[in-house]
Amino acid sequence: VLSQIVELRLQLRQSEPLYRRLLRLREHRDIAAAEARRRIVERMIQSAEQSGIGLQGDQRARFNEIQQQLSQLATDFSNHVLDATKAWSLNLTDAESVRGFPESLRRLTAAAWSRAAENSGGTAATAEQGPWRITLDQPCFGPLMEHSRDRNLRETVYRAYVTRASAGALDNGPLIERILQLRREQSRLLGYDCYADLSLSQKMAGDVAAVQQMFDRLLQASFDRAKKELEELSSTAAEQGQDGPLAHWDIAFWAERLREHRFSFTDEQLRPYFSLDRVLDGLFGLCERLFGIRVQRAADAVSVWDADVRFYEVMNDAGTRIAGFFLDPYSRPANKRPGAWMNDCIGRSVTVRGTRLPVAHLICNSTPPRRREARADDLPRGGNAVS
């Protein structure tokens, strides 16, 4: 299916009649005088040109072949990371090993043990008595690095996390090398010196020099402050008994201790105020105040891929539906890649048959609730909220 999707996209973007029509459309007075419309047309022209519309014969055939390979390599890369994440786990049976774990993390890791035990005919765990199963999924990894008082455990989990998909059948190293080779070849077919030039031609920065200048400015503005903050963390760690310099698996832990000391609160104390429904009410209320739209849960049944997925309708100030989106809020390690992202499902279009409304996906990676209801556990982690 993936190859067919790629082929269809290439056929559309390499359509000579469509490309010629876009070039004429760009010069039309209604388009030339409207900045937003002109921008849309220019981006469509650029998309066609960067999809090989200007290539002929063997060059176009090679471009299309590369595009197919890159799509498959990207899919394989993501699948390797997902499979490597699922393949690793660590079982803890000693209560001392989970010292410092907040209640939500104990529940999460006990539930992970119980799921594994159910599949193997074992005994279920409890948050209080264990056993606890550590995984590399972000809802487990992030809180563990912040709260586990077992430095050796933090090191073990950190090293496992940063070396995922780097050995054996799931090794992404060869895939990365091949992706870089193909990107370079494809970029040069389109007349660019390297892939960075091709990628940045579609972005606000514009070119590699602008990106480097931005990094230089950030370095100048942040280096001294970052160095001072690291020294503060090192002092805090030394005062509380840690020997030796800070390692990568210490940073999040001591940053959390310093924050708790300075501001006298923890994530666990905040959770009751940030249940999923309360967060959504605040978010949708903000959208209404800023943009004059109303977001509401769809009254009619909509087919979804998981029981926790919701579908929302976006209404204008006249009460007319103008868009919709799926919200998939929780982590599902068995079949959902980590992270948070958004994408379009159906694009808006206007034809002689009428207007097709847009639909999007909004995917998050929050800790699942204990039951199929919104609870205080739903507080999104800092790196996993989609804004």
Name some characteristics of this structure:
387 residues; alpha+beta; 4 domains; 9 strands; disordered C terminus; protease; metalloprotease
Model description:
By secondary structure, the chain is an alpha+beta fold. The protein contains 14 helices and 9 strands. Strand 7 (about 350) and strand 8 form a beta hairpin. Helix 5 packs antiparallel against helix 9, helix 7 (about 140-145) crosses helix 12 (about 250-265) and helix 11 packs across helix 12 (about 250-265). The longest helix is centred in the middle third of the chain and has 32 residues, at about 210-240. The protein is globular. The relative contact order is 0.08.
Summarize the structure in short.
Belongs to the peptidase M3 family. By secondary structure, the chain is α+β, with helices and mostly antiparallel strands. The chain is 53% helix and 12% strand.
Q: Would you spell out the secondary-structure blueprint of this structure?
A:
Blueprint (H helix, E strand, L loop, with lengths): L1 H12 L2 H12 L1 H4 L2 H15 L7 H31 L1 E4 L10 H18 L11 E4 L2 H10 L3 H12 L10 H17 L5 H6 L7 H32 L8 H16 L3 H4 L5 H16 L2 E4 L12 E6 L5 E10 L10 E6 L2 E3 L2 E3 L2 E8 L21
Parallel strand pairs: 5-9
Antiparallel strand pairs: 1-2, 3-4, 4-5, 6-9, 7-8
Family: Belongs to the peptidase M3 family.
InterPro entries: MetalloPept_cat_dom_sf (IPR024079), Neurolysin/TOP_dom2 (IPR024077), OpdA_N (IPR045666), Pept_M3A_M3B (IPR045090), Pept_M3A_M3B_dom (IPR001567)
Keywords: Hydrolase, Metal-binding, Metalloprotease, Protease, Zinc
